[in-house]
Amino acid sequence: MTLMAISVAIFVLLGIEHIRHQARDSFASTVSGVDLIVGAKTGSLNLLLYSVFRVGTPTDNISWASYKDISSNPGVAWSVPISLGDSHQGYRVLGTTTAYFEHFSYGNKRKLSFSAGTPFDATHNVVLGSEVAAALGYSLGAQIILSHGIASTSFTQHKNHPFQITGILDQTGTPVDQTIHVPLAGIEAMHARGSGSLGISSPKEPPQKKIHEDLTPESITAFLLGLNSKMMIFGVQREINTYKKEPMLAILPGVALSELWQMVGLFEDVLRLISALVLVAAVLGLGAVLLASVRERDHEIHLLRVLGAPPYYLFLLIELEALLISLSGMLLGILLLYLCLALVSDNLFASFGLHLSPSVFTSDGFMIMLVVLGAALLTAAVPSMRIYAHARAYDNH
Amino acid sequence: MTIELNRVNFAHAETPEKPVLAIDHWSLSAGEQVFIHGPSGSGKSTLLNLLSGLLECRDGEISVLGARLNTMNSRQRDKFRANHIGYVFQRFNLIPYLSAIDNIELARSFSARCADRPTLRQTEDLLCSLKIEPSEWTRPCSRLSTGQQQRVAIARSLVNRPEILIADEPTSSLDQENRDNFMSVLMPLLADHKMTLIFVSHDLSLAQYFPRVQALDEISEAI
Description:
heterodimer; A: alpha+beta; elongated; B: alpha/beta
């Protein structure tokens, strides 16, 4: 029982620590090199979540004119429009331009790279994230049909607009892996002809068409900005936030992320507190079990004393027992954690884009284990001292 | 003299006014084998604990093998006991979850006589001479029969080649046949090793094996 309690406590403590680290790393590495994210007026967290992590739904769109206006600002080095709202078998579809592949970077400013193919150059071309390609078994040249909305079973399929796969991206460990990238014009083409989008067969235009000017979208969901100089970030941000023609919001990814951590932090603290309490209970239980065993082992203690064992030997014997129990508890807990990570990591990745590395051993993890060992030894000192005193003041049975 | 006691008075710390033992003089020469009998609770175990140095005697003088036990500290007495005194109890002579070999090795590990430490081979010889089958050596002691356990206990008590063997009711948990078996194994071994034996029991039928037989109340005047 004690063993189980300790292993569960270790499991929870290390698990939380691990997921916390991984989540931060993974979230922080998802977007890099982007100075500002701009979207319709909403909460900054919401904007961050839907634009970069594909979590949640956009509240409103912003007009293409506003995008054009702001991206022509002299301080803007590059801009990438993104348009969300469609999906394919549960994977989100992102409408964008080829600038996305040039400027979007992740991790330590690493650019997106292609494991096969090239960026799209026609309206009905599509570039898949590595996860999408692997999970659905698509290869270059195949044609896929996108559906309206973001549910995996949508009633509205854009059947008249099959898209041809021209490229597959390398794995990034970010939500990009689960995204299907199409040109903005492709999105426009799908939605422009309403009758076709309902799936009633009315074959119209050939799907392969060079990107036309008339397929310029009216609105987009958000856009990413890179500026010429970091010094201009706040100026441009203010300019966007006070933009007269349309209410818009510009956020700094880093600032929004730290807001996210503040929110999640409270939850983490509660979990940590609970697991710390479980641990305290487990360690106290260990102490109680050892104390009881000391009482039952009068004979053994007597025998060891007669054989010439000094009192400190008996002290160490009990401490060693505590050490063994807590070590095996830890081992069990860590094994359990590995098992769970292996089981849920696919799921986590699919639903949150959270990539968990299997390595649990961080310096914090080691600290936790040291603390647990220390606590176990300290608690075991009570029965150990008892046996020591008993051995010293040896008296007749 | 192997053992010599002079003006020894002993009382438990909780009841200082009621002495358990009061021995004016008692001695045992080397190689002597004494049978001490007396009713239970008469202080036999206390005497043995004093002789082995488990209990500290503050009043009087106890010398064993020429060493004064009263002048040693607890650590020194522990070492002395491990090196010079073998012990066999009525029950619970062995750590139940360790094998016979491991129990004997454990006793060996507390002895500091590195130079003439017996080898594993000698331990095995000892077990053979005590009629313990090799197949039983590595089984946990709790699975051995009581008779076997007591014989392993002899082996354990002899492994450090002590000068003195103390036996505290070693046959009380055995039936008639095992008891005779035990005695017939023990006595020749002691003769071989020229060991001094203090054998305590309430069972007077065992007195036939001993040249010297004493009742505890002849030794101690406390009761």
